[in-house]
């Protein structure tokens, strides 16, 4: 017997004076680079001589937690194996620790938190873990999978702004191939194509939460867009 199931998902808004910013996208889009540039910019922005700048925390997910975070990294690097779907539960546990121990206390104290990935990644990557090809999923299946994943995060503080840096999977693979590292679990053209489709779906489903940035341009052009959007959004 089939059962109709529907969800109403809302997110916990940031109630604190700090600002929560996240960067998202498939591997190779330049999230880490842009997060670091934004951190430096905000620390120095409108800074008179002799004055200390804004207090900015740069972090990432999955974390370097010595137990859960490291286990996730070991899976991504191919050092350990287990069913990919089980990764979602590890991500949720890792993010809960991250929220409670770093993100929320930092926001409460008025700091700016910049995170390289947040829970949006779990949806884009989690849909792939459920099905090998996004294009073969019916819209109802996408909704069911995404909402079941998001239901694990509805009590998490949602970023005040999420920059989704959008590039093609082919450009991403080209960039990754130039990095001096071993290919990771998700770093194939086919997987990145499906993960990108998940991000594209998210950006259309949650346009007020996710800001799309064209990442197929130079680092400087992408940075300029991010600075402009940040200044318009927060005006500080």
What does the secondary structure layout of this molecule look like, with pairings?
Blueprint: E1 19-24, H1 31-44, E2 56-60, H2 68-76, H3 87-108, E3 112-116, H4 120-130, H5 139-150, E4 161-166, H6 169-177, H7 189-205, E5 210-214, H8 219-234
Parallel strand pairs: 1-3, 1-4, 2-3, 4-5
Helix pairs in contact: 1-8, 2-3, 4-5, 4-7, 6-7
Mass-distribution shape? globular
Rg on CA atoms, Å: 18 Å
Overall mean pLDDT score?
A: 83
Domain count: 1
Biggest sheet strand order reads 2-3-1-4-5
What fraction of residues sit in β-strands?
5-15%
State the distance separating the first and last CA atoms: 56 Å
Q: At CATH's second level, what is the architecture?
A: 3-Layer(aba) Sandwich
- CATH homologous superfamily placement: P-loop containing nucleotide triphosphate hydrolases
| Main beta-sheet annotation | 5 strands, parallel
Give the proportion of residues in helices.
Answer: 40-55%
